[in-house]
Structures are given as C-alpha cells and as structure tokens.
Amino acid sequence: MSAIIEHFKTLTQIPRCSKEADKLMEFLVDFGNARDYSVEVDETKNILIRKGSPKLCLQAHYDMVCMGKAPKIETYEENGLMKAKDSSLGADNGMAIAMMMVLMDKGEELEFLITADEEVGLIGANALSFDLKSSVMLNVDTEEEAEVYIGCAGGVDINASMQDTYIDGIGECYEVAVKGLAGGHSGVDIDKGIPSAIKVLGEYLHEEGVTQLVSFYAGERRNSIPANAVAIVYSEKPLEEKGEVKTRVLNEKPQVLKEGAKALELIHTFKHGVHRQNKELGIPDTSINLAIITTDEKGGLLIETSARAMSAQGLKEISDEAVELFKSYDFDVRLEDKYPSWKPDVTDFTELVSEEVKKVFGKSKMTAIHAGLECGVISEKYPHMKFASIGPTIRFPHSTREEVDLKSVEKTFEVVLGVIQQVK
C-alpha cells in the first residue's frame, strides 16, 4: 500500500465536513510543524505550509461534502477502486492532501496552500491573505486523469423564501416520497442524466393534480443533485405509488400552506439542469441545481439553488432568469457566495504540466471544468502567478457513490513529482 493511500486513510478518520473541519486543520498544522515547515493559519482557517524559497505552490482544500454516514467513513477497495460504505469518501480533495503529506515527509521545498470551506462557496479562497512566494500554482482538485484544467465555471447560490400562513386541507392526507436516488456533483455530473428527487416528486404531484401542500423537505447540499425528497400533501383522490414515488396515507389532519399550490407550480416550472452547452469546450456552459427545499412550522418556505456558468455574462444571465422566476411567484430572493469563473488560459506553465502528463499517461488534454475551482478566485488575488489544475480520476463526488481510481492516484502523483522537478 502506497504512502499516499495510508495518509488518506488517516484523513478519513478525522472529521472534516465543511465548516466542521477544525480537527483536521489542527492535525495538518501539527503535521507541518513536526517536519520543520513554517505554518500559518489565517482568520478563515486557510493553512499555508512552507519550506525554503519555493517556486511552486501546491493547492487543495481540506473540507469535504459529507453525505450519508460521513464524517464516519469506512473505506474498502474493489477492482482497483477505493469507496466508502454508505457515505461520501472525501477523495475530493483528501487525495491531494495525502499527496502533500508525502511531499512533506520528503522535505520538499514547496508552498502548500490548503484552503477552508471550498465546498460551501470557496469561502477560504475568497478571504486569502497570505504572502505567497511562488510564481506558479498547481491545484490538485480535478477529477479526471490525463487532463490539464485551464479554466472553470463561476457560480452563485440563489435562495428564495416565502412566509405563508396555514388553512384547513380537504381530502386525504398523504406522505409522498422519493428516496435513495443516485445523487451527484451539481457541476461535473449535471449533464449525466442523473434524476433530481425534487423534480421527480414535483412532476408526480403536478401530474396527479395535487395543489394542497403541508410540508416539503428535500435535498442534501447546495452542490449536490438531490437524492431524497418528501412532501406531506392533501389529495381529493387516491394517490398511488408510481416508479420511484412511494405514497402512504397519514391518519392526521395538519393544515396546509395557503400558497402551497404556487410553490408546487414553481417546482414544476423550474428548469433544473443544463441550460446551455458550451460547444467549444464540450461541457455545459450554464446550469442550475434545484438543490434544497424546506418548510417550517410557522409557514416559512425556503428554496436553495446553485447556479454555474463558464463566463461572467453567462452567470448573470442564468442568475437573472432564476431571480425573475422566483419573483414571479412572489418569493423574496437572495444571492450568496458568488465566485468568479476562471477564463481558459494556455501559458508556459500549463504547457509544462501538459508535457509531464503526457510522460506519465501517454496523452494529455487541456480543457475546462463546469465546476468551481479555487484557481478562479486565487488568480484574481495573485495576478502575478500562473495556474494549472490536475487530479486523479474520482467518480460521483458529493455522493455516497464516490469512488477513486487508486492507480490513477499513483500516476497523478508521478505527474506532480515531474512538475516539481521541472519548476526547480
């Protein structure tokens, strides 16, 4: 078993869900100090670990999307893949951290920038304040081997809320549920045909003519395609199970939301998924994830979405479209955690990285990703630096199906070592 995998297994036993990763932060600080590196932590809990006069900065984030039983993670291997039992694995971005730990064990003169809360809006990267010495940065947070990423999507969370009142319902009360769908990353998986539990449930209720809503609880994370959705509704006709939709009669008589029909119509109308394709890059250009819906006992209803686009103009267009839709249904709208796209840029550094990828994999492809990478934010803060991003093959991140190709991890680390030698 390689040192990288051993270090990664150690990381899986340290809780690091977004906004709850202090134990891992403390572990990494101690790890760097014990190997005679200088270590700094800023107010947002970003970590900078440095030795000597480095020319290269390796960058990754230390939080993870916790799905299923996570942060309790039990790993296993199957056909050359590492997976986790009933939880997300955290290979995104734990494998990069494990690679950094091996390099620290070797005493390499590098900068290691390890950012906080990337998965919930690139919070750490947005607040970076370190004095970085390096002239180039290699981000290790992408999920397809033999590819060099030179651009990424920007994004913004668009949240809509309504304060409603309750009235008496008519007919039979039902629980209607869609549970255990595949889920997935709301960026890189948004074009893979993965069904949204919210849309599946919403379409069923629309087809059945249901207009009386008691409550709606759906989705897991803003950056995950929702795998579960449950609604309590009234219906004047029997509701039968259909496909993924399960129904059961409730022997209760709760009141219904006065504007429930409007909320259900909005769910039906909302265009979840890819809105426009980027033909030049062969990836989505704009998309939006209908991520989470919750109601409360006081009549409050909250809808959380995550929009992405490969350009600032694209992000404005899809944001404006969502805001207009929500307002047309009398929702109050709030935009949060906006981050910029990283415009695709071929430089001498991306060429250098591409050559090292070719040496190891026999091929290399420069491309962009329909997801947020911290390169976009960091490049605005450090305009003198050049950036590239690589990573091992990780499938279905942000879901309980997450898996990482172990051979890909080893080969990607070979690329990292090659880049280090070339930059030296």
Automatic annotation (TrEMBL):
It comes from the Bacteria. Keywords: Hydrolase. Coiled coil: none annotated. The keyword Hydrolase applies. Pfam families: Peptidase_M20. This is M20/M25/M40 family metallo-hydrolase.
